[in-house]
TrEMBL record:
PROSITE patterns given in the database record: G_TR_1 (PS00301), G_TR_2 (PS51722)
GO biological process: sulfur compound metabolic process
Annotated source species: Tenacibaculum gallaicum
One MF annotation (Gene Ontology) recorded for this entry: sulfate adenylyltransferase (ATP) activity
EC number: 2.7.7.4
Residue ranges of every copy of the Tr-type G domain listed in the record: 1-215
Name of the protein this chain belongs to: sulfate adenylyltransferase
Amino acid sequence: MNVVKIATAGSVDDGKSTLIGRILYDTKSLTQDKLEAIEEKSKQRGFDYLDFSLATDGLVAEREQGITIDVAHIYFSTPKTSFIIADTPGHIEYTRNMVTGASNSQASIILVDARNGVVEQTYRHFFINNLLRVKDVIVAVNKMDLVDFSEEKFNQIKGEIKYLAEKSDYQNQNITFIPLSALKGDNVVNSSENTPWYKGETLLNHLENLGTEDTEEVSKARFPVQTVIRPKTDEYHDFRGYAGKLYGGDLAIGDPVKVLPSATTSTIKSIQFFDKEYARAKRGSSVNITLEDDVNVSRGDMLVKVGEEPSVVKQLEATICWMDKAPLQASQKYYIKHGANDVQAKITELTALIRTDFTGKEEAPSQLLLNEIGEVSLKVSKPLFVDSYAKNKANGAFIIINPKTNTTSGVGFIK
């Protein structure tokens, strides 16, 4: 069964939590006690309908204010697909939460209130999905029941989003527009008779038909070694395997590989997962690999195909989303975690502050504040083997750690 990870985003009162609750309700994914609790709470609030947002807003503050604050993960399945939805907050002060939720997602749903159309928050949500190279974006034009299911209003919003898409530097993105009413259920799980002019799929059908192969871009194989397996038992006295998760592309038995940073070469001898052996490992697989030659490989090293080597650098140019209350300034020192490697780093230059409404950049800012996105240059204490984020998401991203507090201060995307 396919597993699809989805992020959601929307401005205040766009109906994001209600949409997720409606999906859970219509797919019969809510337990009986949860459904009874929603019914009771809806009656207490004087509603003559079920308030589906109660199915996802777990924090007390979220339920009291009717907003999403933290990232919540919701799991449900249909006969065709299993879904993991990262319900991310849309407010500007929670930009870091949205980046966190969308960073591991294969598709994204951006909600737009049909009454208000495209607003400032919509620009930010669309910008972040472009920055993170989310391949499939669904623009869910919600609350169509409050604009009498106007095709004209839907097409107006569609045109504004397409105009934004033309400004993006990520042109491989698939954008789908769906008119719906999360509260009433129109075009969420079931097709609506109120939109005879809409000939596309329902939201759930579209998500089911994405498939994991459609939402991941193939690139060059990268196998960062997480641990070296040496059982040292009589049966496996000479066994030496390298365990990790494969990113980007596939690896097969017989492939010539290079070990970084030593640059020694060998050939893949076997590929194992638990007690089974395979001829090929697909990207996304967590496997154990053995080599034909007894070469030196340690945690933090990387296996790549010969001729498909990444860049080996000590100077990085990156886009940063800042997540720390203490501002980022030039000359500050941090730790960078890139894959299995932890290295010291120094910010050498703040190049630009990026305006997330697609209006450009502010050159050479003095600092980056919490939730701001900017471009920086930095030096690291030892070479890293990297790709640009545009070519390989896993090998092109890193996190910045404050050495004094050990907190995650930011996330970076290598240019």
